[in-house]
Task: inverse folding
């Protein structure tokens, strides 16, 4: 297939749904590239900040935002008559938001999700939710954006590399060219479930890595936690039909390494504070932004239980978060499990 795609920046209509740090950063990235776009903002104060000050002082303070971004609190206005709708809302709000916009979407719109999570009740990924809430959008028009990418670094023009996944190669390549710049390299994939699972489950493992560092357990322990965490991501992904090679890529080990070692990671930060002795309630009360791994830990544990997949690290993180298991006891349980070979699928 010829991967050269002509993009007419002046004609492509884009709506971005969600003005948290990542949604704002991606909207700004597209705005700086030259696209004029509408950005749906939930909070009135954030809308006014972006409109008047060109800054999202709540979720991305200090970043000067493109004049090409038009913020709005009107969801219908943002998604109507668009060629591309990029959805970047917390995973636990995805069903509610996508249901509200379903009636306003054009027939041939391409939906791109950059949200990472698994719904608690249904154990569905974000594209799985879309299949239920956006029945007019064909599956081939669903696209996933994932990879090692902090919002703060994207707006600072730090070179960043991500993956775009879609079942239709033509759509993946089209969205690849929409986002690609000399500082934002984009690869394509057909493995949507693998890319989504890598992005979701790594947040749970990042909490574990944060606990390790919070307790001062050293680099040996953190390296083991990340490596065995990757095994669990791959194990769950293969059970759901993912390509195992995906987990050696950007949306697998790449995103995992970033989230498990970067101080900008909210999930790592939650884990580090748990390791330092804070309670989850105390930690979350001090956070305005969402740490996806907290809710995803419940989804992953229940999904693994239903599928009979052994995920020891994810299970212990669930127990720490929801059953008041101490990190010390969780670590002891992991280290004294029955011995066995390294590679078991």
Result:
């Amino acid at each position: 297939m010829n991967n050269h795609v002509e993009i007419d920046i002046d004609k492509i209509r884009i709506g971005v749904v969600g003005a948290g740090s990542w949604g704002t950063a991606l909207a700004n990235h597209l705005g700086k590239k030259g696209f004029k776009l509408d950005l749906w903002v939930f909070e009135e104060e954030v809308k006014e900040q972006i409109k008047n000050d060109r800054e999202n002082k709540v979720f991305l303070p200090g970043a000067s935002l493109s004049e090409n971004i038009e913020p709005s609190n009107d969801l219908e206005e943002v998604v109507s008559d668009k060629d591309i709708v990029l959805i970047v809302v917390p995973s636990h709000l995805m069903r509610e938001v996508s249901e509200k916009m379903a009636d306003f979407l054009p027939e041939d719109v391409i939906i791109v999700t950059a949200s990472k999570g698994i719904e608690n009740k249904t154990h569905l990924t974000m594209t799985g939710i879309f299949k239920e809430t956006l029945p007019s959008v064909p599956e081939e028009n669903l696209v996933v954006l994932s990879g090692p990418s902090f919002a703060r670094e994207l707006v600072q023009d730090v070179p960043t590399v991500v993956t775009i996944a879609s079942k239709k190669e033509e759509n993946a390549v089209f969205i690849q060219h929409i986002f690609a710049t000399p500082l934002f390299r984009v690869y394509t994939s057909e493995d949507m479930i693998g890319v989504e699972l890598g992005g979701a489950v790594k947040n749970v493992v990042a909490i574990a890595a944060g606990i390790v560092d919070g307790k001062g357990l050293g680099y040996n322990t953190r390296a083991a936690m990340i490596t065995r965490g990757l095994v669990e991501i791959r194990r769950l992904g293969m059970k759901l039909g993912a390509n195992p090679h995906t987990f050696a890529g950007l949306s697998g080990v790449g995103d995992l390494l970033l989230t498990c070692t970067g101080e900008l990671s909210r999930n790592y930060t939650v884990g580090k504070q748990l390791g330092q002795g804070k309670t989850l309630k105390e930690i979350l009360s001090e956070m305005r932004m969402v740490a996806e791994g907290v809710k995803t830990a419940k989804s992953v544990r229940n999904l693994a239980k239903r599928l009979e997949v052994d995920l020891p690290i994810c299970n212990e993180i669930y127990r720490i978060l929801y059953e008041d298991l101490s990190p010390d006891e969780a670590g002891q349980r992991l280290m004294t499990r029955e011995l066995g070979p390294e590679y078991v699928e």
Observations:
- The first strand starts at residue 14 and ends at 17.
- Residues 201-335 form a domain with the N-(1-d-carboxylethyl)-l-norvaline Dehydrogenase; domain 2 fold (CATH 1.10.1040.10).
- The chain has a mean pLDDT of 96.
